[in-house]
Amino acid sequence: MYLEKRGVPTSTVVSTAFLTHGHLAAKNLQMAALPLLVTPHPLNDLTPDEVRELAAAAYPIVVEQLTGMGPQEPHTHVNFAHPAARAGTGAA
Amino acid sequence: MNAPLKAGISDAPILELEDSWEAINAWFLEHDLTDGLPIVPPTEARVAAMTAYVERELGYGRDDVIGTLAPKHGQATVQKIAANAVMAGCRPEYLPLLIACVKGVADAKFNLDAVQTSTHNTSPLPIVNGPVVKAIDLNYGYNHTGSRWQATSTIGRALQLCLINIGGTPGSINIHTQGHIARFEHCIAENEDENPWQPLHVERGFAADTSTVTLIPACPAAMIDDNGGSQTAKDLLRTIASSIAYVGNRNTNGEGQPLLILCPQHARLLANGGYSKAEVKRFVWEQARIPFGSIPRGNLTSFSKKLLKLYADFDPDARVPIADRPEDIVIVVMGGAGTHSLSVQTRLASENVTVPILRKDGSPWQTIS
Hints:
The structure holds two protein chains of two kinds.
Chain A: H1 2-5, E1 12-15, H2 19-28, E2 36-39, H3 48-67, E3 75-77
Parallel strand pairs in A: 1-2, 2-3
Chain B: E1 5-7, E2 15-17, H1 21-30, H2 44-58, E3 65-69, E4 74-77, H3 78-88, H4 95-106, H5 112-117, E5 123-129, H6 132-135, H7 150-165, E6 188-189, H8 200-203, E7 212-225, H9 233-244, E8 259-262, H10 264-272, H11 277-287, E9 290-291, H12 305-311, E10 319-320, E11 330-333, E12 340-346, E13 353-356
Parallel strand pairs in B: 5-6, 8-11
Antiparallel strand pairs in B: 1-2, 3-4, 5-7, 7-12, 7-13, 8-12, 9-10
């Protein structure tokens, strides 16, 4: 947020568990419109390959947020389903 | 209907609410300004009595800012602290200690933002030393972390209400995975009468007659049951050391400041056995360890880089300490009779902070009136 205030574009990554906090933290620092990139939660149980898959899915959003070339939503969910939530795994 | 009652509340104009205990409590609950328990309505008169006491005793005006509380970066003025103190049921003479507590959690070293917004089951634990303990009748004996003690219960509660109402944003704070019962209230005092060593504040360089509070980023305590009653200091040290370290203790990840709360009988046995407090810390640091190889590899992703450098790819039987240095371990003496001590793991990347209770001019506050 400090970088943004200094005119340096940023892409702020939060997982769903911290989305509310991310919005409120941005608001508290007078940057309510700070665009957030939202990943599923948790992240710490992903395999390295799954992290690469997540990064690839997040990349276009990061580029859009840094360049202002895409829709500037308050937050954008990465198109990446946590493996535990994917169909057929039996997980919710 | 009764006449409207004026209530003073932080960050808000004076509210005019129906003069009924039920209506006022319903309003505070509805606006997420409580811990879920009933509050004492913070009327202008009650808050003013608090701020007048602070002005007289400490020289702080009601608009003086004591600290900024994360994550909202709310400015903790004396008046806002006083309003929360009223709500929690505090007496005015508790305010100097409560203000010191707020100063402590606002210290950057404490890293309040992380304590409040991470999923860790952590809560600020104030440990009080010095004459203020007896002056305001804080509990340091039986059931000192428990209930039924006005100063202990209400000061601990008031600090939590300050964190909710000055520093908090509903939905943002308290997303601890299960939480911590201490989120209702936590405030304890050292049992200096039965401490065979220097009390915590003297160990940290303060005069014995200066009152202090040490804020610990504390996780739920684990009891160290020595119910057979160790007969020798060495037996007790062995019991303690083997009861602290385990893979799921955050402090095994390194560079934290774990807290050991010794009951008076345990402290006495150790001191009579010839051990200084520093030696007990050293023993615990050297012996309360787990083999590096017993930590599942996946868990090492959050392991201290500094400790990884020392222990990884070396010897799976090399034993990892619970703190970077012996002196990082905090030892205090508390509680009543019995042979039960407590091991408290602490949050990493948050340091404990000791704050003296000072007047605005920097002189120690030593009188109670």
